[in-house]
Amino acid sequence: MRNTEVAYKNVYLIPLAAYDEGLYAAMLIVRELNGLQRASGVLGHFSGPAEARQFALAYGMAEIDDRPPGAPAALLQPSGRKDAALRHAA
Question: What top-level class would CATH report for the domain 6-73?
Fold first, then answer.
């Protein structure tokens, strides 16, 4: 598992891939500039670690942009509701 920190807008995204019974679980840590971190649960399972990290990164970018995961960045959609997948971590 290789942790790569990616600066995106006003946060740092840390996509993770953990081996889980033959597949790789995608997870994400979002670190704000003030040091507050939020961690996701498992976002999905993938055949390889690169795919899992790539999905977690795309998921995090979509959440920061307040658009559905998988939607192109050009299709920003205003929404009053944030996805609850990320929660505060101690």
Answer: alpha beta
